[in-house]
Amino acid sequence: MHKCLEDEHGRIASYMRISVTDRCNLRCVYCAGEGFDFIPHPNILRYEEILDLIELGVKLGMEKVRFTGGEPFVRKGFADFLAKASSRFPELEMCVTTNGTLLGDHVKKLAAAGVQRMNISLDTFDPAKFEEITGHDLFHTVRASIDRCLDAGMTVKVNAVAMKGVNDDELPSFVEFAATHALDMRFIEFMPVGLDNGWRDDVVWKAEDILTQARELADLTPSVEGSISRKGPARMFDIVGGKGRLGLISPYTNHFCATCNRLRLTSDGNLRTCLFSDKVYRLRSVLRHAKLGLPVVERIIRVASKTKPLGYKLLERKPEGQGVCQTRMASIGG
Ligand code: SAM
């Protein structure tokens, strides 16, 4: 493994999360919020610029790239860009995080282009509740997208933000879904990221509680090392006699900072080394500067990675009633 981007805590960055847009067609209550300005178009990195940065990332040891947003498929030409990126960097593990509303006919083409990993967000199996959470009546569209991805042979992870009073009453449906579909159904603890997203400690449906409750509904055994997604921050469980798995991601109650291998690139070209920090390194203007360009961007990435913080320490110092960072998740790229 490359050690180009080893930080002061011995962690090596090998995973780049790239947001291609801060725009989203949904307004999930816990994420996007209202009353904010979108990034002006000229400030959004062009696809060619993103490809250059991926190439640099590969040189610095990146092994995995995830495209996210906002909603990545909202951006014009994203599916074609993805197919292009996949063929240009065949050695990279390439994944997408999407709300699944616009995947539509892209699935077959993407699978054929080698895009094999799709993370789809779905917080509820109740269409009316889906509309309450997201502001849009698109539950059935998302469900159909999940089936399409499975039919196309993709590795599918379905992610639900776990919130008490919102979806904790639906655990039987989540377990049943995972038992009957060959996918990973993962719960992500609600994080205090951004402003006015309704976060409160007592709304977090904690991973340990989910596990205890899920064990009452199904026979769960820890997934063996080496099976899909065992490398990530999710703790995965096989459902005995079932097709899929259940997963728990606990950034709030049981952080995984010690093994964090991520860097984040926002759609306006800011590098963020930690989801819980507002610190950004502005790459866009350097990248576009005739005399600076990629060599200087490389130097900035090296310095930034070196001093990547331990996010849980920022979480511990979080002021009461505020997010741990002040930027909404949709702008950072969750
Ligand atoms: N639009 C895409 C989607 O819906 O997956 C990608 C962007 S979205 C910001 C990425 C992920 O972040 C989604 O799974 C979403 O549920 C999650 N997310 C957003 N806000 C969150 C929060 N406050 N706590 C935990 N997860 C959150």
Q: Can you summarize this structure?
A:
This protein is an alpha/beta fold and 334 residues long. 30% of the residues lie in helices and 17% in strands. It has one domain: Aldolase class I (TIM Barrel, Alpha-Beta Barrel), CATH 3.20.20.
Kindly describe this structure.
- This protein has helices at residues 47-59, 78-88, 106-112, 127-134, 139-151, 171-180, 207-215, 284-288, 293-306, 311-316, 329-332, and strands at residues 15-19, 64-68, 93-98, 117-121, 155-162, 184-189, 220-222, 235-239, 245-249, 262-265, 270-272, 281-282.
- The protein has one domain (11-332): TIM Barrel (Alpha-Beta Barrel), CATH 3.20.20.70.
- Strand 8 and strand 9 (245-249) form a beta hairpin.
- It has eleven helices and twelve strands.
- It is an alpha/beta fold and 334 residues long.
- The protein is globular and about 60 Å long.
- The site of S-adenosylmethionine has 20 residues, from strand 3, strand 5 and helix 11.
- S-adenosylmethionine is lined by residues 24, 30-31, 68-69, 71, 97-99, 121, 159, 161, 188, 190-191, 193, 197, 329-330, 334.
Essential attributes:
11 helices, alpha/beta, binds S-adenosylmethionine, globular, TIM Barrel, 12-stranded mixed sheet
Question: Which helices and strands, and how do they pair?
Answer:
Elements: E1 15-19, H1 47-59, E2 64-68, H2 78-88, E3 93-98, H3 106-112, E4 117-121, H4 127-134, H5 139-151, E5 155-162, H6 171-180, E6 184-189, H7 207-215, E7 220-222, E8 235-239, E9 245-249, E10 262-265, E11 270-272, E12 281-282, H8 284-288, H9 293-306, H10 311-316, H11 329-332
Parallel strand pairs: 1-2, 1-10, 2-3, 3-4, 4-5, 5-6, 6-9
Antiparallel strand pairs: 7-8, 8-9, 10-11, 11-12
This protein binds S-adenosylmethionine (SAM).
S-adenosylmethionine binds next to β3, β5 and α11.
